[in-house]
Amino acid sequence: MKGFIDSKWAWGLLLAASLAFPWLAGNDYHLTVMSTAYIFAIATLGLNLITGYTGQLNLAHAGFMAVGAYTVGILTVDHGWTFWASLLMSGVICVVLGYFIGLVSLRLKGHYFSIFTLCVGYIMFLVIEKWDGLTHGTVGIMGIPEPEAIGGLTFDTPVRLYYLVLFILVVLVWVMRRIVKSLLGRTFIAIRNSDELAEALGINLMRNKMLAFMLSVFYAGIAGGLYAGFVRFIGPDMAGVQHTFDMMIFAMVGGLGTVLGPLLGAIGMPWLTQSLQFLQEYRFIVFGPILVALVIFLPYGIVGSFLAWRARRDAKEGKPHAQD
């Protein structure tokens, strides 16, 4: 029998809580914080696919998210495209860009791949900051239009925008779960565990790494496009590597190599930082030891450590174990 984390009841309760949140939120600010957390959860799920499931740490992930955001900003503000067409293009452009970057970067392994993508991310930041004619440079892009109405459904209030972001998150979480539970997902895990063994089993390493990379940056592009339509202003700082490290923290706290872990990390960590705002400049003194404690006592993240404990328990009892 599957555990609670694997059950449809757990996902159903999480969805019910998300649907009820606007009635529980005290004001529009809380809705904005949660909607932004959902957007970064989408990007974090993409990072988790290439890092947690395939074992490649992509430090240019925030750069791809910025590419998606600027795609929406440039196409809507400068060329009059609709938001929905621009959002689709944000994912497509990131996939195409990811293909060409992946052709070079995925031939590298381990920290060499990470260093290369770190350089790629910095190049993306410089291009966005310096190419005034295309990206508006350091001024950024302002006045990005909100998503157009679909039928009679408009997205002109924080509540409606919240439900729009939630709907897209739910769809992409469902797709991600289908991917990681399929033969393709198990192929990614085999590559993460051992390149040599996976290749000996007949797995095409380059093709599968490329596919994981392109799916990962697609999620980043869609998240960036949503962010542009939600915030309606973007600047070069969005491509900063600190956002990639934020997403890595979200995934590590929740549990790399799971779907639920990065989702919970991306939603919960912003609220933890918000709750420490009253400490002002001292909040990082408190936040730092909390992260250290999590790494020491829950090395696989919250969800990952729970699944590891349950696997050991089931092994002792001779029960089959299903992973998240």
Number of helices: 14
- Write down how many β-strands occur, each being a DSSP E stretch of 2 or more residues: 2
Kindly report the spatial arrangement of strands forming the biggest sheet: 1-2
Low-pLDDT ranges: none
Described by the principal axes of the CA atoms, the overall outline is globular
The percent range for strand residues is under 5%
Indicate the multimeric state.
single chain
- Structure classification: mainly alpha
Distance, first to last CA: 13 Å
Largest sheet: 2 strands, antiparallel
Proportion of residues in helical segments: over 70%
State the order of secondary-structure elements, H for helix, E for strand.
HHHHHHEHHHHEHHHH
Averaging pLDDT over every residue, what do you get?
Answer: 87
Radius of gyration: 20 Å
Q: Would you write up a description of this structure?
A:
The protein is an all-alpha fold. It has 14 helices and 2 strands. It has helices spanning 8-24, 28-53, 61-78, 83-105, 110-130, 132-135, 158-180, 183-193, 195-200, 205-231, 241-254, 260-275, 283-297, 301-317, and strands at 141-142, 233-234. The chain has a two-stranded antiparallel sheet. The radius of gyration is 20 Å and the shape is globular. The mean pLDDT is 87.
